[in-house]
Amino acid sequence: MQKSKKNFTLVMAVIMVVSVALTGCGTKDSSASDSTASASTSTTAAVSTQEQLAPVELTWYLPCNPQKDTDKVNEELNKILKDKINATVTLNYLDFATFKDKSSVMIAAGDKFDILFTASWMLYRQNVAKGAFVDITDLIDKYMPKTKELLHPAFLEGSKVDGKNYAVPTNKELAHTYGFLYRDDIAKKYNLDLSGIKSYGELEPFLKVIKEKEPDMYPLQGFVNTNPVELLDFDPVGDVNTPGVLYPGKDTKVINVYETPEAMEILKIQHQYYKAGYIRKDAATVKDKNPDQNAGKNFITTGTLKPLVADDYTLAVGFPFKVVELTKPFITGNDAQGSMQAISRTSNNPERALMFLELVNTDAGVNNLINYGIENVHYIKKSDNVIAFAQGLDAKTSGYFPNNFWVFGNQFLNYFMEGQNTSKWDLYRSFNEKAVSSKILGFAFNSEPVKTELAACANVYSEFGPGLGTGTLDPEASIPKFLEKLKAAGADKIIAEKQKQLDAWLAAK
């Protein structure tokens, strides 16, 4: 699961479900029929006739487990696209564990491609600073008018860098909470009631039972990107995993989270859990959490949450899950950048790429084909917006079920799987309305003045982060060394630069 970095890392990797909003404002949605009817009109508004469009081939790179029937789905998708915008697209799915590294190599090499998934936790701002993405601020109005109409203004405002848009946000929930998912069947088996847990330290008695009774399970998920500090929900100033955050709900003084007593305390708890054998011994070297998740081997997984995430995870993994929230709904600047599509500077057809994304976000047929595959092959319809897997198939045996709805585009067009709560979007609206917004929502940190220091600090995070986050390292011994190396790498300069820019932004409001 992941947030920012991750949006529930768990949910990210398997169902990947994670997050963002403006206080008191629900995401605008439209019915599938309305969206389908308007899609062709909104897309072709950019040109007088479809015949004026020369044929083009597009490429789209996304973090997603490779699917056996991707080529079949791609073929069906291109039949639609040829008719609507005289284009074809090649879907390229790269697994989450390698997506950041592989996409970084593509950008550094200047590879030719058109569309790339990006996010605050997927080097969005850094890649903008490198000139990797096209400025689409003015192009959105011309080529994606319907999508812009559907998106809450917070998405486009919150995803700007230096006042310009370089990516199209996914239309989804607008806030986040932190907490954990747990295997409900296992909890019932041993009469464990986790519903009253209010803090991370209260997990210990339950983890102890699982350790003793279920030797083939891991009581608590652990892998390279695990970090219980995220459960404290500090307000990020710029990208996560960079020095400089705010205490949530307090003043606007930028601090180093690892210098706080709260971070020390929760990492001490994590170290105790690790020593007790509740976390797998090699967690600090495990990069891919999917095998454990898919096998149902984790009793508890921590990370970001949102409405019905337990249902989504249950559908993806095949085991029943429940949720316990440890924080209140909160909206940060990074939430608006939690899932986006950017146009590569190497694209020869940025306009057509945006026209394609307009269809993904407004055409229910296109959207659900990408999300669920081919009707009567991968799924069957039970009603207008409720489907079931085709006979003999399920989430694990279907040739096409990416189950990464938040990755692809407008979630409000998604069909519901049979048995899912069809009031999901109402729950999202309620969730958003309860959320508290960050004091710095809309602030975008310009990392250029400290890019050397950020790169140096990233190396220090890589050295200490996995060990601290998984509990492998003793924080009382390791955090002083961690902080010393961060300071040597320029952490204080980064924090000072963040404070300088933030103060200027606040003064100009």
Keywords:
509 residues; single chain; alpha/beta; five-stranded mixed sheet; four-stranded mixed sheet; D-Maltodextrin-Binding Protein, domain 2
Overview of this structure, please?
The protein is an alpha/beta fold. It has a domain of 238 residues: D-Maltodextrin-Binding Protein, domain 2, CATH 3.40.190. Helices cover 41% and strands 14% of the residues. It is built from 20 helices and 18 strands. The strands form six sheets. It has a five-stranded mixed sheet with strand order 2-1-3-14-6. Strands 8-11-7-12 form a four-stranded mixed sheet. A three-stranded mixed sheet has the order 15-16-17, with no helix packed on it. A hairpin with a 4-residue loop joins β15 and β16. α14 crosses α15. The longest helix has 19 residues. The two termini are 35 Å apart. The N terminus is likely disordered.
Taking the alpha carbons of the first and last residues, their distance comes to 35 Å
What's the CATH class of one domain, please?
Alpha Beta
> Mind summarizing the main beta sheet?
5 strands, mixed
**Rg measurement, Å:** 22 Å
The largest beta-sheet arranges its strands as: 2-1-3-14-6
Q: Sum up the overall morphology in one term.
A: globular
User: Approximately how much helix is present in the residues?
Assistant: 40-55%
Number of strands: 18
CATH superfamily name of one domain? Answer: Periplasmic binding protein-like II
H/I helix tally:
20
**If classified by CATH, what would the architecture of one domain be?**
3-Layer(aba) Sandwich
Mean pLDDT: 88
Q: Would you identify the regions where 5 or more consecutive residues have pLDDT less than 50?
A: 1-49
Output the structural class: alpha/beta
Q: The CATH topology of one domain is what?
A: D-Maltodextrin-Binding Protein, domain 2
Percent of residues in beta strands: 5-15%
